[in-house]
Amino acid sequence: MNYSVDSFVQKHQLIKPCQTVVIAVSGGPDSMALLHYLHSKKTEWQLNLIAASVDHELRGEDSLEDLQHVKQAAKKLNIEFHGTSVDVKTYKQQNHLGTQEAARILRYNFLAKVMKEVSGNVLALGHHGDDQAETLLMQMVRSARPEALQGIPLCRPFSTGMIIRPFLSVSKQEILEYCSKHDISYKEDASNQETNYTRNSFRKEIMPLLKDQNPKIHLHMQAMSERAREDQLYIRKQAEAVLKIMHFSDEKGKSVQFSIQRFKTFPFALQRSAFHLILNYLYDNQTEEISYLHEEMFVDLLKGQKSNAELNLPQGLKVIRAYDHVKFSFELLDENQSFNERIDIGETLKLPDGCELTLERCGESNGEGRYEFICDAYHVKLPLIVRTRQPGDRILLKGMNGSKKVKDIFIDQKIPAQLRKTWPLVTDNSGRVLWLIGLKKGGTCTGEHSGTWLRLRYKNKADT
After folding, report:
1. What is the pTM of this model?
2. Smaller CB count within 10 Å for the chain: N or C?
3. In which domain, by residue range, is 434 found?
4. Residue 26 φ/ψ, nearest 5 degrees
5. What's the pLDDT tens digit per position in 135-191?
């Protein structure tokens, strides 16, 4: 076993000479073997070793005895020891977590604290090749996403340094034989025999079948994990180019927007990876609830014929398509977004979205811009009304014999469905639609005039 681990550590440069190595030791055979192995390399590699152990208080006196066992083993090897007891049950209840997740958080919190106290370079964990194989199998069962099938990382950043797993190249049986050969005393956790935990079921019922087919399955799975991580790292790097065409915003909650046409210029594999990078950003990397079905729903949204469509993802995330544009957002839309306000001459009305509309007298009828509307006071009934669209609204346009539905104008102008709900229009006091702001103007203010002209000016909130 020593040769396999030595080669694995050197190949991946997991440990360098003169480093401070914190060893997480539970008292079981894996971590006790790791403690012994690193102690055997202490002089050769000039290492400063620290043993750290956590009592989760889940098995009463048994778990406390495990802590004391590790403490005595460290003392015997003349290794500095840091230990603690944590109240997993209370933490679990307070934070609404499962037992395993609560224990993991408290354990890593303590290990991070130890790393900082001793200025640790690496935190060594005792996960082995069988753990790797079980993890990959569970990931395969739970997810169809290639990026989810990467197994346990052999190293990753943590606290003041890196987490490393030197035993991923050896099997559980090799570790047990190592313990027997070196007379290493360890504690067995009885919960490891229970099959109500998913991992234990894979360990006891599935792994023996695989080992019958391939006794070196742990090496096969470790090689697969390393290659999968390398491939996904490359694809992710390429997918980051897709993100450059997108607009990321933190205003009113995180959101992401992009053009479908530009998005589709990238290979489909990068589109798929970019989708998950967007979700990592919006969910703060907590994407356990996302499955390949959500991915397929997103692809269907882009391919669909509907110009306006919506997709609901976990935790209230909405994906809204409006013609060529897509927006990911947690922003809660007010279902009652309609408004109806009056405006008199000399007044400035502030709209719900922060934009402003001013009504004033003017001396002439020319000089009208896109965001201005001029009419003869003789042809309108004051006060004017500023409101959102109502069913059946129509506007008489210049050059038309009849009127046109406001709804059809929105469709012709490719206005997203969500924006139509709050788009302002102006009517006179008789209900006649004068102006669909920024889009179309009514043609009813023609013929003889009184010489008194009214000008409506619309200001976007960005300009106010």
Report:
1. 0.64
2. C
3. 340-459
4. -95, -20
5. 999 888 877 677 777 889 999 999 999 999 999 999 999 999 999 999 999 988 665
